[in-house]
Amino acid sequence: MLAAELHFPEAGSLKGKRKYVKSAKAQLQNRFGAAVAEVAHHDLWQRCGLTAAFVARDAREAEELAARAEQWLASQEWVLVRAVRSLVAADELTE
């Protein structure tokens, strides 16, 4: 899982922010196969909290997907303020 906080310096309204958020979510879904949700800062024009979940056969592959997604987010026209990666293994869910 990747939790990211983004800053959109050019957004001047919630409508302007929405353009960036839609793009980020779509690209995370298309490029990395992630399930993505906006989870924070809904009412702020220039901030967004996203959480992306990655499913893979093994932990290493999931970690690589999350790391590549984080690198992609950091290379875009917005600012990646913070990113936190965490791993949940299937065997943790069956206990």
List keywords for this structure.
95 residues; Alpha-Beta Plaits; 4-stranded antiparallel beta sheet; 4 strands
Largest sheet: 4 strands, antiparallel
- CATH fold descriptor: Alpha-Beta Plaits
Which regions contain 5 or more consecutive residues with pLDDT less than 50? none
> What is the average per-residue confidence, as pLDDT, rounded to a whole number?
91
Bin the strand percentage.
Answer: 25-35%
Rg over CA atoms:
14 Å
Fraction in helix:
40-55%
Order of helices and strands: EHEEHEH
Q: What does the oligomeric state look like here?
A: single chain
Q: What is the CATH superfamily? A: TT1725-like
Our measurement of the CA-to-CA distance between the termini, rounded to an integer number of angstroms, reads 20 Å
| Spatial strand arrangement across the major sheet | 2-3-1-4
CATH architectural label: 2-Layer Sandwich
CATH class: Alpha Beta
Q: How would you describe the shape? A: elongated
Structural class per helix/strand content?
Answer: alpha+beta
The number of helices is: 3
Overall number of strands: 4
Question: Mind explaining what this structure looks like?
Answer:
This protein is an alpha+beta fold and 95 residues long. The protein has a single domain (2-88), classed as Alpha-Beta Plaits. The protein contains three helices and four strands. It has helices at residues 14-32, 59-74, 90-93; strands at 2-7, 35-40, 47-53, 79-85. A four-stranded antiparallel beta sheet has the order 2-3-1-4, covered by helices on one side. A hairpin with a 6-residue loop joins strand 2 and strand 3 (47-53). Helix 1 runs antiparallel to helix 2 (59-74). It is elongated.
